[in-house]
What does this fold into?
Amino acid sequence: MMALNEVFRDLLAAEPESGAAVAVFRNGREEVSLCGGWARPGVEWSPATLVPVFSATKAVASACLLNALAEQGFDAEAEIGEFWPGFPLPHATVAELLSHQLGMAALPQPLPMEDLEAFREAFERCCPDRQYGYHPQTFGPLVDILMQKLTGRRVCDYWEARIRRPLGLELYLGHVPDEVLPRIAHLQAPRLPGGKMPTDEFYRAYFTPGSHIYRAFHSVSGYDSPREMNTPAAWRCGSPAKGAIASARGLCRFYQLLMNRESESPFVPEVARQMSARRAAGFDHILLRHTAFGCGAMLEPAELFAAGGFGHAGAGGSHAFCLPEQGLSFAYVMNRMQLGILPGERVRRLLAAIRNR
It folds into this structure.
């Protein structure tokens, strides 16, 4: 893993005022733990440093929902209407929801993250277009409401009681104790190339109020900017779409648990199989590019995931994945954000070091 170490040190040198960490596990054992830089002014990044990982949370939430389904004798082919009366697509499957196929990415008006009843009413009134496209924000309340219908509790409560607390996992969702708060890194806004906002088709739509893409990224109000995310309220929001706080080790261990590479894993093997199986692929009408998804997991970059791997990126640059055939999992977390939703240059350089090792 010497090449991975060298790439990581180069990335740190390019951003001397920020920090990051990388972890690699194989078959239940840590092979690589790298960290450096600054978690916040005057506080060095350590292996125990935690940081918001945004949409990398979606894999955590999906695994919880799939596991809860299995515990009640169902799988991803279960129809949503069986658990959620009033859902506008009662015969749509959980797999279709988790792979962004329902066309429910955007609501007419943003709703507050904590008001799940308002989201339930809005979803039941909506007219899904069934266009394939990433659900950056509505994924959270959709999965939370479905989990409530199935188990009587939110995703974050299931995660804390069933998985995180029993295993001491450094990956928090909603339930962040006071003593952990000083270990959380502060996010830094991305630097704009040349000091200017990008002007490609995606970003033109993203910054155009009223566009479908704008509404997809603003259907849930609150905790959008780095400043908003650097607060205990954001760290404890528990959103299944973007609320997780994790160390690189914690995020990496989560994927080891999914692959059942730890003896006390609470996940049934079917969860990883459902997340790794390709459910949707093609032109994404939200991200305006080709994407591919399993049940709650990204199957890209394709050159790395060709052999059944899966993972999920987070806005700003965090990324984690696993390769079940090799028993390998990887996680990268940082606090200097970059523009973009999918793996950016930094992650791709790290992934190349792994692929070519």
In short: The chain has 13 helices and 13 strands. The domain at 2-355 is CATH 3.40.710.10 (Beta-lactamase).
